[in-house]
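ok so for the tutorial part 2 we go from a plain amino acid sequence to predicted structure tokens. step 1 is just haveing the sequence, like this:
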Amino acid sequence: MKHPEAYKGLEVVVLGLARSGVQVALALHQAGATVIVNDKKSRDESPEASELEALGISVLCGGHPDDLIHPGVALLVKNPGIPYTVPPVQKAIELGIEIVTEVEVAYHLCKAPMIGITGSNGKTTTTTWVGKILEASGLHPIVAGNIGTPLTEAATHAEDKDWMVVELSSFQLKGTSDFRPRVACLLNVAETHLDYHGNLEDYVSSKAKLFANQQDTDTAILNWDDPVCRELIPYIKAGILPFSSSEILLEGLYIDPPYIDGDAEGITRTIIYKEQSGQIHPIVTIGEIALPGRFNVENALAAAAISIAVGVSPEQLAEPLRAFRGVEHRLEYVEEKQEITYYNNSKATNSKATIMALDALHAPVVLIAGGLDRGSDYMELLSVFEGKVKAVVAIGETKEKIGQVAALAGLTDIVLVDTEEDAASVLRKALQEATVLASPGDIVLLSPACASWDMFSSYEERGRIFKEAVHTL
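step 2 — the prediction. this is what the tokens look like for a chain of 473 residues:
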């Protein structure tokens, strides 16, 4: 994509309203483009339309007109969640019209250097954590992207002195061409979102676009323990700063002593930064980090590596690493009642995220799981069910599949909750069933291993209903 000013007098289609679509339309309109915004929602469901029309921007609601995409369209900016299979996108592909997402537009508008953070799990926690570290270190972070402020809106207000800290999904990255973050971090890769990408290869290649335009003056942060991350190394031009929780590295961020399967609990481990020169900087012990679980240790390693890459000294890292208390819906402590502890992990929209949460907990777990069926058999949950879970309460489209895995794991306390009622009632009933199955000292964990869209508008809605239900038990 060219700079938005290059589209002055040219027709640009923005597909999908929502907050990011509005901001993209405004930015391109201000650059002089002839902007047409289209959304399949009805006009009554699109309150943003009036704001745009008042500025002279055309808004078409209620479907995709057959003549929306034509040879005269210079650019299609697509909401990341809209699949490439919808007719307007297919038509643009046929006509050779460039298709981008908001990230590409924002990149061209942004004066501040960008930090791009992606991964199958841990993006929001790491992005938020980096923002807190940079702020505590006297820098000027702007946290945006897949969380918080739409990236285009943030980019138009950013200044040279700022650092744009951006959470990025594979959906967003797939629609980039020139995007070049100064620092890019890939946390991990799990088999997820295949209903959108079609196959794992497309998913990984979309994630890898984070590094595509980096140069040797940039930095790529990689999880050394993830084989997919390591496979990308030959294709990365930037300097690589790795992190690992299972290996002492020649350079980078690691844990000493490393995690080894079967280790006894109670071992004192320290986050270490080793410079290329070999100089070692102990930063903080794992026990000082408030967030539970090895996966949060890995998020801490990534956040520390990113911060070092932008100029934060190792000595400045300890306090913000200790002080961070996490993000809503990510293994979030809710309440303890009758000696039963409740955690909200609604952001666990794939099996790996649920496995990571279960591995972080050290008490018997009654698990509430289930949601949108994307075709997985959930057999990857089998071993962790055998070792960590005492009972399962399953909801949503996948309740039978998850119940079958629980049965194969030898569990006898398995409840499948009928989903004919409204979603909130189903979740409250699941919580009640889980509480009955729990004993003092146990944990009731909402960690669905599935997306929420079969029952809820978002994982946030699912998590908030769960928390409200816990508070009113």
